[in-house]
């Protein structure tokens, strides 16, 4: 084991040497049940068969390759395989997790994740079952540990969290015998974990037993009909901070007074973590959100935690917030928002914008704008303009050096872009992405020049990118390439400005 520390040695003491007869029996008769073949061969005109399960030879009559038959010696259902045909890629495998009691701690249970396989590419009479240990799990009250082997050198490493290795074996059949779990948990706290309720939802139960080891309140929740809370935690779904997983009593676990628990108990079957959290918030701030309201709103709000930055503001409470969300959803009429969660997401972003813009969040008119969508669009624009001020200062500092690119003839004018706003307008008018070049332009990583018709110098016409003294691209409306007249102008600009700039630069450095 990698880094054979004292802790690792103590961990290994929980596990037995080798595998029991029961494990070998399960591997042979369940995991590799379909790995039973009759290989056919001939002596003269007589066909014979060899059974890989009972290792007996016998006469056969016309068994066909890839068919199925029953071995006359051991009565096993077998596949028929012609021994003379290639079997380079013929193998059977499976992954199984076996639970047992700890060898040294009567309160603990262990599990071993084992990969088993048989390879038939060589002599089919000498095929052996190979067993490779990949996972070692230890579960005891208050603690769970997991060591995994990801290679073929038996080097195990402790993982920070406990997880199933099922994804490491795609396309391989998975097994976790129920009777092994029953025997392992007998006379331990784990027998009360309600693991049976989750046995069909968890491939090998390792993540469930890890969860129970650390959060025994799972027993309360499951037995009271709140399995959905456990499932949310178990399968990595949002729990909305609705459960105190380390609570010792049900009122501590549910973060509610006992009288409130009695009130909501008839609704446990339909109670989601969202609804529970909403009900808790209503109790906490005194707005007295009813359980029926919490259940209804909980179906519309995926992540109640998104309410937190809004509820921290002084003039708000959960009931007032919900009323506002509903009003905005109704007012919008599905133009931009389709669910209450969409309104909340936009509102949260709007509040963040207000903080960046130093708006007065003690003012209810700021917190609760009459039209949230319009207000958010407005704060968005302000932030973009504010962010562009810095870029504009850099562009302004470049302008003296960029004057060398100014050029005109009787038809056209070319000049450097004067600001980020001009770049954004240029991209919007010509339907291309030059607005995204603002930062590179501001920091002299590239140069953006604007071509205008001499008779209409305010209207975007063509955009030119110059990099390292060369024209990199020229684009008109909708990425259009230059017309003949525009290209001729560009050629003259290149000869008169860019090539002259190069020769001047050459003389200075020469």
Short note summarizing the structure:
With 510 residues, the chain is α+β, with helices and mostly antiparallel strands.
Q: In the residues, how many domains can be counted?
A: 4
- Give the number of helices: 18
How many runs of DSSP E, i.e. beta strands? Answer: 16
Major beta sheet summary? 6 strands, mixed
Distance between the termini: 66 Å
> Mind telling me the C-alpha Rg?
36 Å
User: Quick one: overall form?
Assistant: flat
Low-pLDDT residue spans: 506-510
What is the SS-derived class? alpha+beta
Helix content: 25-40%
Mean pLDDT: 91
Cross-sheet strand order for the largest sheet: 10-9-8-7-6-11
Determine the strand fraction and express it as a percent band. 15-25%
Write up what this structure looks like.
The protein is 38% helix and 19% strand. It has 510 residues and is α+β, with helices and mostly antiparallel strands. The chain folds into 4 domains: 6-206, no CATH class; 215-300, no CATH class; 318-385, no CATH class; 389-502, no CATH class. A hairpin with a 5-residue loop joins strand 2 and strand 3 (57-60). Helix 9 crosses helix 10 (291-298) and helix 13 packs across helix 15 (372-402). It is flat and about 100 Å long. The two termini are 66 Å apart. Residues 506-510 have low confidence and may be disordered.
């Amino acid at each position: 084991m990698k880094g054979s520390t004292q802790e690792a040695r103590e961990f290994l003491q929980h596990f037995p040497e080798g595998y029991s007869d029961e494990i070998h029996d399960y591997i042979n008769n369940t995991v590799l049940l379909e790995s039973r073949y009759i290989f056919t061969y001939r002596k003269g005109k007589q066909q014979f068969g060899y059974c890989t399960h009972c290792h007996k030879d016998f006469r056969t009559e016309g068994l066909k390759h890839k068919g199925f038959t029953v071995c006359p010696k051991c009565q096993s259902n077998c596949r028929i395989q012609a021994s003379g045909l290639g079997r380079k890629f013929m193998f059977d495998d499976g992954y199984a997790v076996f639970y047992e009691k700890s060898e040294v701690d009567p309160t603990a249970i262990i599990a071993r994740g084992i990969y088993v396989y048989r390879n038939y590419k060589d002599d089919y009479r000498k095929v052996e079952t190979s067993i490779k240990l990949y996972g070692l799990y230890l579960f005891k009250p208050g603690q769970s540990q997991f060591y995994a082997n990801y290679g073929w050198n038996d080097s195990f490493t402790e993982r920070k969290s406990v997880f199933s290795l099922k994804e490491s074996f795609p396309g391989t059949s998975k097994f976790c015998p129920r009777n092994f779990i029953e025997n392992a948990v007998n006379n331990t706290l784990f027998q009360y974990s309600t693991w049976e309720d989750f046995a069909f939802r968890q491939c090998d139960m390792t993540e469930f037993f890890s969860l129970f080891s650390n959060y025994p309140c799972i027993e309360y929740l499951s037995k009271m009909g709140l399995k959905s809370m456990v499932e949310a935690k178990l399968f990595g779904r949002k729990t909305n901070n609705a459960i105190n997983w380390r609570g010792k009593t049900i009122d501590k676990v549910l973060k509610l007074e006992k009288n409130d628990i009695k009130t909501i108990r008839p609704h446990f079957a339909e109670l989601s973590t969202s609804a529970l959290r909403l009900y808790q918030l209503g109790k906490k701030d005194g707005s007295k959100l009813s359980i029926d309201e919490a259940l209804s709103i909980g179906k519309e709000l995926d992540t109640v935690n998104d309410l937190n930055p809004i509820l921290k503001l002084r003039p708000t409470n959960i009931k007032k917030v919900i009323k506002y969300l509903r009003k905005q959803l109704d007012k919008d009429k599905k133009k931009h928002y389709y669910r209450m969660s969409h309104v909340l997401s936009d509102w949260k972003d709007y509040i963040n914008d207000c903080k960046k813009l130093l708006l007065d969040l003690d003012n209810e008119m700021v917190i609760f704008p009459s039209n949230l969508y319009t207000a958010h669009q407005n704060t968005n624009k302000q932030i973009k303009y504010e962010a562009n001020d810095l870029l504009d200062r850099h562009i302004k500092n470049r302008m003296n050096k960029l004057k060398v690119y100014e050029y005109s003839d009787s038809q056209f004018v070319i000049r450097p872009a004067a600001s980020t706003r001009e770049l954004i307008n240029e991209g919007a008018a010509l339907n291309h992405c030059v607005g995204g070049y603002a930062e590179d332009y501001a920091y002299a990583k590239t140069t953006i020049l604007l071509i205008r018709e001499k008779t209409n110098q305010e209207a975007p016409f063509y955009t030119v990118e110059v990099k390292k003294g060369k024209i990199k691209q020229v684009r008109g409306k909708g990425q259009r390439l230059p017309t003949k007249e525009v290209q001729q102008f560009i050629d003259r600009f290149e000869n008169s400005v860019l090539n002259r700039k190069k020769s001047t630069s050459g003389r200075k450095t020469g």
